[in-house]
Amino acid sequence: MKTEYEFRPKILGFLCNWCCYAGADLCGISRFQYPPYIKVIRLMCSGRVDPLFIFRSFLNGMDGVFIGGCWPGECHYSTEGNYDALTKKYIYKKLLAHIGINPDRLRLEWVSASEGIRFAEVMNSFSKQLIDMGPIGKAEGLADEELKSRLQVASSLVPYLKLVEREKIRVRFQTEKEYEEYFNGEKFTKLFDEMIAKNVTTGLLLALLRKRDSSIDEIAQSLAVDRSVAIQQLQASVRQGFVHFDEAHNRYGVAN
């Protein structure tokens, strides 16, 4: 007798030692129920979650990545690491969307040491959200190889992305609302498009052309961008010597 497959999302959580991890511990002691397939890693601060951790988690098959920290204003470090985590959330959710992965697979929440029940509620909510989405890649319409390629491109650019974050994007506000307004505003969108999106799209373009020579229309379709954007990326890559154009076959390929 066949039984219907029940999707159980793989979730990896990075928890602040002082608050969220203690909240998770209290959750267990209090026997509050949450899905058993959530694995956690304890860090001293949510601000120490390196973006490479996020992409490697997805590359290793995680359907969702959770970051748990102290409530704003309650960070145990003078650097207010949880605000750094908040900045990363906005940047890397936007980047996930840019490479075709549902940004809601990355989630940041605040949980204090006394909020065991909140930890259970958040984990149950995130698990249900991921179940509704489905497995990573398949839900986005990406084959395993394409999913891996896109995540590898994003991972390879992490050193550059961290530099951009530190030199151009890092901000410090007093409230979460101010962070939300800034990262959903025109200034950040312009910075992201000019300094991050173009480089990521170039990386995706080169990854595609390493597999096979392609026409402009094939490139635009594969990268899910307008034809004009594909042309701009190709022209820039040709000028930089990364890509060559085969006039005989009207196709582009990686330069030797």
UniProtKB/TrEMBL annotation:
Q: Name one Pfam family in it.
A: FlpD
**Molecular function via GO:** iron-sulfur cluster binding; metal ion binding; oxidoreductase activity
State the UniProt keywords alphabetically: Iron, Iron-sulfur, Metal-binding, Oxidoreductase
Span of the signal peptide: none
- Keyword Iron-sulfur found: yes
Q: Which residues form the F420-non-reducing hydrogenase iron-sulfur subunit D domain?
A: 11-134
| Designated name of the protein | F420-non-reducing hydrogenase iron-sulfur subunit D domain-containing protein
Which organism is the protein's source?
Desulfosarcina ovata subsp. sediminis
